[in-house]
Structure formats: C-alpha cells, structure tokens
Amino acid sequence: MLFHVNKQQTSYGEDIGILLLDTETPFIQGDVGNAKSYTYPVRYKVVKGLTVAAIFAHDTNLTAAIVDAAKELEREGVKAITGDCGFMALFQQQVKAAVTVPVFLSSLTQLPFISQILRDHYKIGIITANATALTSDLFTAVGFTDIEKLVIKGLDDTKYFYEAAIAEVGTLDSDRISEEVVAASKQLVEDKRIGAILLECSLLPVYGFAVHQATGLPIFDFLTMIDYVQSSIVKRTFPDSY
Asked: Is the pLDDT of residue 241 over 90?
C-alpha cells in the first residue's frame, strides 16, 4: 500500500479534533479535555479568547477565531471536529459550513436523537453548567426546536462545580462535585416524565456513572457523542467466521 505525505501535518492518526475553551480548569479523566478519556488519539486546539465568560455571554465576535481553529485542525488531518463546551452550539452552523469534515461542537447535537428514541410523551432532562445562558437559540442551532420536551437544571448555583468550572479557582474537588451533580439529577427525576438525561458540560462525563446509578436512566454526555462519531469514521473489522 502506497502512502502520501500531507505537507500540512506533523503527526498522524488523530481522527478526532477538539476545540478547547481558553480556561484554567483541571481536566481529570472523563473530562473532554483529558486525552486519557479516550481509547483512541485525539488532537486539541485552544481557541484563544474563548473564555467561560465569553461563551456564556454568547459572544459571536469570536466566530472567526473558532472557524480558523477548526480549519487548522482539518489541515492537520483530523476526520471530525468537536468542542469542549455545550454552549459551542452557538457556532455549530458556521464551523460546519467552513470545513469538509463532520462537525459536532456541542453535546446538545444529541437532542434530536435522544428525542427520537424516547416515547413521545417523555421529556429530556438536561444538567447544564449555566441554566440562565442555555437559551433557545442554542437548541435551534443544533436542529432541536421542541423546547417543551426539555427540563433543565443548572449547576451555576452550586459551590464546588461553580468554583472549578465557572470561577476557575484552579482546583477541582471531584467528590464534592459528584455529590452536586447527583443531587441535581435527583431533582430532575422528580418529574416522572423524564426518560433520559443529557449532561451538557464537558466536565460532566466523569459523573455519568454516578448519575445513572442514582436515576436508572440512560445518560448522554460529550463522550457518548464523541465515541459514537469516532466509531463511524474508524470502522472495526470482523473475522470471516461464526
């Protein structure tokens, strides 16, 4: 088999490219920003200036910087591009139009799929970093308009999650955050119509198991989405036998 060089690449085999916020939060295993969260190589690129405050403010002045970063990832050889914040839904359409590889910047892109696999009267619970900033335009950007099906619980009124992910104090108490996330999930499922939970924030896959244990519901997050897309662009082979 003959291979040809891509002169714009310095390394190979990183099929998933990940656009990162410009943050100072520790990324532990299970976080989108920790490469040990994956069983395959990924390639990261920080978008300078795309801070937590900017993304929560829906600052579209950063659109060009995000598009440029995505184009750079594509030139470097990635086969699909995601992000590390559900609020990157704001830029989904612009980035998708700028590159030729699949783009799924936000965990919220799973909403149409989740809605389709649940009974019609079921609702989707969302645990988000910031309930106030999670506005309808973000759902519209990922092709989901049935807002009445959503029940949203924010973590912006917590202590430990807020300090780590929003205030960026530089430390992260995972045990305490797990307690806060599980408490939020239990509040959500007080609504008996909820059939699944989506963890919006890229820090939250760490706590998906605990949320599942507490609620018994299907739990979707950034990693369920990234693993799903990766499995579509890197296919398994099977032996020709029973």
From this structure: no
